[in-house]
Specification:
The protein is an alpha+beta fold. Helix content is about 20%, strand content about 20%. The protein has helices at about 1-20, 180-185, 225-235, 240-250, 250-255, 360, 385-390, 395-400, 440-445, 460-475, and strands at about 35-40, 40-45, 55, 60-65, 75-80, 90, 120, 130-145, 150, 160-165, 175-180, 205, 220-225, 260-270, 285-290, 295, 305-310, 310-315, 320, 330, 420, 425-430, 435, 440. The strands form eight sheets. Strands 3, 4, 8, 10, 11, 12, 14 and 16 form an eight-stranded mixed beta sheet that branches. The longest helix is centred in the N-terminal third of the chain and has 19 residues, at about 1-20. InterPro entries: EGF, Laminin/Netrin_ECM, Laminin_N, LE_dom, LMN_ATRN_NET-like_EGF.
């Protein structure tokens, strides 16, 4: 009996949990950039992709209204109540805090009663359009992680456009159109996000879902981020590997959820009827009590912390990267081209750290001496000696890290034994030589160098090398 009761309670708990939390924490991974692990060589750093936590981004934005004098209250004016559009004795007065409705009230704490809200001037200049642009700027690239939610204290507008910018407001592109009649307002067929698919997820649509006119119980407008995620991760966002893979490989999809600025364009207030009531123009205005924007700083998967200092957001970059978005390698860490981190493979991803430049590992010494003429030392094959001496000016670490920067050049990393440098990425060696800089005899690798092979250094060559080394040892000291 107890077992069956326990199983019933457990089943009930699972059901309630699934109902209360239909979505998992969508971006809950990648909260560590590096960790120490133990290997045969001791403790070493293991690097992984990382990103800041998702948070309320409205705490860090700047808001701008256009026209700048569109907020009500200067001069004071009366407007009609939301519940009764013909009871027009409410007052907006910018000089009285209790009656003022400034823009910052769109982002304050909404636990107060009555709710606080920004409000525009009324449509007293009808038929001139009553239009307002509300621009939200972060001066930083951010990635959206949840729905954008706008709560109106007035009726939801008959016509509105949500726009985004990726270049700090220099250019704009539409995110979504909203209208009571999409065909009439924007010459677009009405659609819902549910009409989209994986292949059309980037389509810009016009929706009539959120523009039902002047009603008291319909105040909210959404821009659906999670529903678009669900096309790749499934209805409950369980298959995050699929979404991460798409974000990694499809730049247009990644950019779709990335913004530096948002702009809400209010084009026509809620009318509620076919015709505007010109005798009661105080009925028509815009009022917004809350705007929710959740996201994170874009740090290209190279940081877990984003600092807000001097009214500016900046990533605290890891992986030897730098810049506001960790978008480039630090000085002396440009051993390979910068690359963003990768979400894959799940769950740690790939850090794609910047690695030391060859020049930062150790600068080859410069010589202020005159080299002896090798041919005067009676070396039968001078090419076997000079390359090995020249190679000593390149540290073993530099050679080991040849894939991290230029393999060869015409200044420090010369191809030896008659080899030629091809596009700074490899040496084209003569048939008898091999190695990164053509510094090895091919027969040495095969273990077939002998006195009869014609490739091994002769006793005369060994004596010449010894003589050359002695001469170098007695000359003036090296200058670094």
């Amino acid at each position: 009996m107890y077992l069956s009761r326990f199983l019933s309670i457990h089943a009930l708990w699972v059901t309630v949990s699934s109902v209360m939390q239909p979505y998992p924490l969508v971006w809950g991974h990648y909260d560590v950039c590096k960790t120490q692990i133990y290997t045969e060589e001791g403790k070493v750093w293991d690097y992984m992709a990382c990103q800041p936590e998702s948070t309320d981004m409205t705490k860090y934005l700047k808001v701008k209204l256009d026209p700048p004098d569109i907020t009500c209250g200067d001069p004071p004016e009366t407007f009609c109540a939301m519940g009764n559009p013909y009871m027009c004795n409410n007052e907006c007065d910018a000089s009285t805090p209790e009656l003022a409705h400034p823009p910052e009230l769109m982002f304050d704490f909404e636990g107060r009663h009555p709710s606080t809200f920004w409000q525009s001037a009324t449509w007293k200049e009808y038929p001139k359009p009553l239009q307002v642009n509300i621009t939200l700027s972060w001066s930083k690239t951010i990635e959206l992680t949840d729905n954008i939610v706008i709560t109106f204290e007035s009726g939801r507008p008959d016509q509105m456009i949500l726009e985004k910018s990726l270049d700090y407001g220099r250019t704009w592109q539409p995110y979504q159109y909203y209208a009571t009649d999409c065909l009439d307002a924007f010459h677009m067929d009405p659609k819902s996000v549910k009409d989209l698919s994986q292949h059309t997820v980037l389509e810009i649509i016009c929706t009539e879902e959120y523009s039902t006119g002047y009603t008291t119980n319909s105040k909210i407008i959404h821009f659906e981020i999670k529903d678009r995620f669900a096309f790749f991760a499934g209805p409950r966002l369980r298959n995050m590997a699929s979404l991460y893979g798409q974000l990694d490989t499809t730049k247009k999809l990644r950019d779709f959820f990335t913004v530096t600025d948002l702009r809400i364009r209010l084009l026509r207030p809620a009318v509620g009827e076919i015709f505007v009531d010109e005798l009661h123009l105080a009925r028509y205005f815009y009022a917004i009590s809350d705007i929710k924007v959740r996201g994170r700083c874009k740090c290209n998967l190279h940081a877990t912390v984003c600092v807000y200092d001097n009214s500016k957001l900046t990533c605290e970059c890891e992986h030897n990267t730098t810049g506001p978005d960790c978008g480039k390698c630090k000085k002396n860490y440009q051993g390979r081209p910068w690359s963003p981190g990768s979400y894959l493979p799940i769950p740690k991803g790939t850090a794609n750290t910047c690695i030391p430049s060859i020049s930062s590992i150790g600068t080859p010494p410069k010589f202020n001496r005159i080299w002896p003429n090798i041919s005067s030392l009676e070396v039968p094959n001078p090419k076997q000696v000079a390359p090995k001496l020249a190679l000593s000016t390149v540290s073993s670490v530099q050679v080991a890290n040849h894939k991290r920067a230029n393999v060869c050049d015409n200044e420090l990393l010369h191809c030896q034994n008659g080899g030629t440098c091809h596009n700074n990425v490899r040496c084209l060696c003569p048939a008898a030589y091999t190695g990164i800089l053509c510094e090895k005899l091919r027969c040495e690798e095969a273990g077939s160098c002998g006195s009869g092979s014609g490739q091994g250094a002769s006793p005369h060559g060994s004596r010449a090398l010894l003589l050359l080394t002695t001469l170098l040892g007695t000359a003036s000291p090296l200058v670094f």
